[in-house]
């Protein structure tokens, strides 16, 4: 179109500059161009008749998904661009494959990056006219939605179930016999068994050695406490920290349910938000999954003093409390450490922090200029201050789980199983 317009302009200028009869027909190139545009519009304009969209019913946060668009009555060289909602991350413009019946189909990959129900509003189409003089850019209303939920892929796969069952009730249970605190049964003493397990009174009455079998106590209270303040909105590995925390919390809650413990949950930011008393089995997991699916992303600062004091008041029985939170430096963590110390006098705590891989990569990379050197110093200082906080918490008897996003779930479940095996609760 621009080339044709430039050519018409040049011809008009030449005609006017030549003078005489040529000046009288200086308008002719523009008339011809206008007629070509009208003809191109008549030959090329085709309004797509219908749009059909296929979306997955549910997508786990952090996982890829595919959207399928089907448009009937579409031109051959159709391309499109979607207005992506905040919960989905996708590419830019994509093309369609047009069939012989005039139906254009496109499969668009995307990634779920925020929990919630996200609506797809408009699809912008684009195609060229037959003479390449015009470009059509209409939009279609999509009217579809995608539901993004907390990631429970490990629970569905059975990996956690297998790990917990084999650890607590499988071949390793023989090693743990005698280390528990709950009576299970009496059995005849045989060589190789620990003589400390012999019940001497019953052995005297039976006139043969009888040993006690003990097992780990069950029905402990496990509380999952999620800090939902603004620091947990920081993105690590393409997802906010709170979503990594939710994934690990759900996996650990499932492991605790299988392990025979009672699971509850608690959330807080500037003030306490929700609390659910520990409940057994799948009921607790379903409740936790439903609650985390509706957990909003907030931009409020966390009040650790109020939140942890309230949690301490709500849990009179000694419990295993798993705290998912974050801090910036030792100064901002001072109140956090102080209140965790109070909580640790009654309960057993696991402090979960999500490590930033980019920060560690920055430390391991040599700087190229002064700005890089300043960033390296700041990153080193941040890592050292986190280490100081963790050391203080460890001296209080708090178990620290500090790992990268892809390892946080495995590390947390391992810490839980170790606590169960050692009967620290």
Automatic annotation (TrEMBL):
Chain ranges of the DUF58 domain = 186-362
InterPro entries, alphabetized: DUF58, vWFA_dom_sf
Supply the name of the protein: DUF58 domain-containing protein
